[in-house]
Each structure stands twice: as structure tokens, then as C-alpha cells.
Amino acid sequence: MISAESRDIIVNGLWKQNPGIVQILGLCPLLAISNNVVNALSLGLATTLVMALSSGSIAVLRNLIPHEIRIPVFVLIIAALVTMVELAMHAWMLPLYVVLGVFLPLITTNCIVLARVEAFASKRSTLHSMLDATAMGLGLTAVLVTLGTMREIAGKGTLLSGIDLALGPQAKAWVLHVIPDYQGFLLAILPPGAFIGLGLLIALRNAGESLRAERAARSVPTPQAGEAAA
Amino acid sequence: MTPALRETISTSLTLLVFSVVCAGLLAGSFVATRPNIERSEQLEKMRLVEQVLPKGGFDNDPIAAARPLPADALLGLKRPGVAYLATQAGEPAAVVLEAVAPDGYSGEIRLLIGIRADGRVAGVRVTAHRETPGLGDYIEVAKSNWIRQFDDKRLDAPAAEAWKVRKDGGQFDYVAGATITPRAVVKAVHKALRYFEMHRDALLRPAPSGGRP
To answer: B-chain residues within 8 Å CB-CB of A91?
Structure first.
């Protein structure tokens, strides 16, 4: 059902070319708002939505945009879409809007959005462009949520704190106190905690990849193993 | 017309068309979301203002009874703010003042202070601050009950010397390691009470067109 190309696009976005830990793009919001899981997930999904919309609309318009002025046009379209998403969230999802604050309009300046538009959507079909943007967005969201989980547990000993802001007061009971009576570890909540956490994630991924490459190299003589590694 | 000029004009026109279309889309979504945004902003304001007013102690819409508040040094306001008057059966019950503690650990701490007509504090809430998370942010009601200490305090009770954190010989609690933040808030609330004392009549005077439905 799913074509090899689509599969490649999905694997690239989620793992091989993950924007958070491989391309290292879009770090400003990534580092600023990953101090807990709820913030990280909200911003990740908002970014994914903006990426899918902008890649989709630019792929549709790609033949109408003169090559020389493509970047200004891309930025124009992305900025307009972000503002529309922001207005819609302000009108219909106020709590989420309050949680994300200034980082919602800042999605405009997130380089991953422009990067996918320029590298992918301006050359490929609309469907593949939207798939690519969604996969990349979800890959970024996964990194954000992992980082948010690490920082929230290390920093505050809780999980899902602030979920009542996004889903209403009845959700307050969902907050998990992973470590009871935790005194808190401020470094994890402050920006340095984000850099350290991201560094650890990148190191972990690289270690895993090199381990895999090593294992593949050791069993190279048999052609099947070589194929699997490629 | 040279080819270069022609190309310049055609790309400029393309960019112009894209700009106009985007502007149109934005204008459309602005108009479409406007009523909802205004309503939710009102609700949000109402929710905050209600928290610093005595529960069930008023029967008007304080947001509608908003009035400008001059940029007074006692309130720490650099620009004019807003005061909300709460009335019960037409009689002034309490007033909510916007105030700013300018000397927080990292900048301004914005406050809403509800004061009953008799001068007792009905409630204080922090509306915006940049204090250190996990350290100075216990002034938020979501983080701790610290801010409720001000409930029912008056300008003269405790006495002026005791309107300080315990570390400075006053009677307000603080968390060790973060005294600058509570010190700033205590000072700001005390000053706002002094402002209320000086302008009580003007603050509690019902709006001139009192006959709202």
C-alpha cells in the first residue's frame, strides 16, 4: 500500500534525518520550551501543523513562484500561516495559546520550517511534501517530548505538570509525581539543562548508530548482512 | 524595455500579488476570530479579577466598571493602568488595582490587588513575572499559597514596621534562598494600600452613569 518513497520520507523525518538530533535545526523553541512534557508536546504539534500547512501550500504553488524571489515568498506564506494558526488558537484554544505564549509566533523563524520548504516542498509533489513536513514535525515533537520528560523528571520530579492549563482543571489529577517530595533540580529547568539534555540525546543516538555500523561491518562478508546495513 | 527591467518588474509584481493575497487571508482570519478572541480575553480577565474579590461579595460586572488608573509611583505603574470597581446592591464593595513591583529578582512583577471598601485586602494575584522558576515563583498561586498571606491584611494591621518579610523583622513568610521576590511583592502591596488610603473616595465612587441594566 505505502510506496517505498513514502516509507523513506517517514523514516527520514522520524529518525535518519531527525530535525532535532540529526539536522540540529529549530533549536530556539526546542531548547526554550522543553522544560516540561505538556509545553513540549503542545509546541511540537503546533510546529508540525504549521510545517504541514506551509509545505502543502508551497508545493501547490511551486510552479508559480519565480526562482529568484522564492525565499521571500516562502517566508511570506509561512508567516501568514503561522499568524492564522495563532489567531485560531487564540480564539478557540485559549489555554494552549497562553502556555505557548511568544513561542507560537516564533514558529515563523524556526529554520526547520523554511528548510523543509526549500529543500523538499519547492521540488516535490504536494502529497509527498505534506508527508515529509508531517514526518519531520513529528520527529521534532518526539525529541521535544523526550527532552521535556527528562528535564521535568530531573528538574521537578513530576510528569505532565501544567496539563490542567491545556485541558482544563479536571486534568490536574493526571499530574504524576514520579519522585515524591522531590526538592527540585533547578539546572534541568533552566536553559543549560536543555543544552545538556540535547547533548545527551545526540550522543545516545550517535552511540547507537555507530554500534549498529560496527555490528554491520563485522558481518560484512555475507551479502545479505551488507544489504541490510545499507 | 530591457529584458532585465522586464524581469525585475514581473518578479516584483509576483511578490506584490503574493503579499496582497496573504494580507487578504490574514484580514479574513482576523475578522473571523475577532469576536471569539475578545470574548475569551474578557473571560480570562474576569477569572483573574474574580480571584482577588471577596466571593459572593459583589453583584456587578467589575470588568464593565473598569476605570483608568493614573501612572502613580505608589502603584509602581509607568503607564496608566486600570482599576475595577465591584459593587453590591449599588454600594461600593471592593476595588481591584493593577500594580507593579518594580524590584523583583529579574524585573517587574505585575500584580492585581483587591481591596475591600473597609481597607482590608481581599486578595492578591501575580499576573506576570520573570522570577526564577522553582525558586522565586512560589508567589504564583498555582505554585504555593504564599500569596494568600495578604488576605485580610490592612494598611495599619500589621503596623508599618511589620509590613516586611520575617528576615527583615516583618511578619510575612518567605522561602530561604529567595527573599528578593517576596520582599518586592510585600512592598508593592503595602504601597498599593497607601495609595488606596489616599484616594479611597475617588476609587470607590460609583461610575457617573450608574444606571446600567
So the answer is: 32-33, 36-37, 40
Dihedral angle computed from the Cα positions of residues B129, B131, B136 and B141, in that order, rounded to the nearest 10 degrees: 20
Taking the CA of residue B31 and the nearest CA in chain A, the distance in Å comes to 10
Chain B contact present for A186, CB below 8 A: yes
C-alpha to C-alpha distance for B115 and B85, rounded to whole angstroms: 10
Grid cell in block for residue B97: 488595582
How large is the ipTM? 0.74
Pick B22's closest partner by Cβ from A76, A87, A184: A76
Phi, psi of A100 (to 5 degrees): -80, -30
d(CA A70, CA B211) in angstroms, rounded, equals 59
Entry pTM? 0.73
> pLDDT of B61-114, one tens digit each?
888 888 888 888 889 888 888 899 998 888 889 999 999 999 999 889 999 999
Contacts of B3 in chain A (CB under 8 A): none
Q: What are phi and psi of A154, to 5 degrees?
A: -70, -35
